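Structure first, sequence second, as always.
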């Protein structure tokens, strides 16, 4: 069984969303998980313990396993991520030019079929087909204290 398949089948069964997986040349496996309300150290420990045993049973060679939260500027990997984080600010990089640009930052206004609609700071919107997105992530917004 391939590592990604194992993780895609196992992590949701433990009650977590599999956000991303990175495999370094040194056989370091990084697994990013999330859940509603955020991830705790205990969550990472539960998933790490379970995956460590499972990867040994499945004979997946690795030197080190790290399990963590994707952080406040989490990557957006699936179309469902854009739906979930509607009204949040995201930075999106595309493989193709759109209006002469490849990098966009704005509020996720909506998702229509496979098109992400971003509201840009200048008041314009840009429609980005999900299939041409190379990378995307949420942008943390600092809230100024009132008073």
């Amino acid at each position: 069984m391939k590592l990604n398949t194992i993780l895609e089948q196992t992590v949701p069964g433990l009650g977590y969303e599999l956000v991303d997986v990175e495999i370094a040349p040194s056989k370091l496996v990084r697994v990013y998980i999330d859940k509603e309300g955020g991830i705790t150290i205990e969550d990472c420990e539960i998933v790490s313990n379970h995956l460590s045993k499972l990867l040994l049973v499945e004979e997946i060679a690795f030197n080190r396993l790290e399990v963590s939260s994707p952080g406040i500027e989490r990557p957006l990997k699936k179309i469902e991520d854009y739906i979930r984080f509607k009204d949040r600010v995201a930075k999106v990089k595309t493989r193709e030019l759109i209006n002469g640009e490849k990098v966009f930052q704005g509020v996720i206004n909506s998702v229509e079929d496979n098109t992400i609609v971003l509201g840009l700071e200048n008041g314009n919107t840009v429609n980005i087909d999900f299939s041409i997105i190379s990378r995307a992530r949420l942008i943390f917004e600092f809230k100024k204290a009132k008073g």
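Margin note: The chain has a mean pLDDT of 93.
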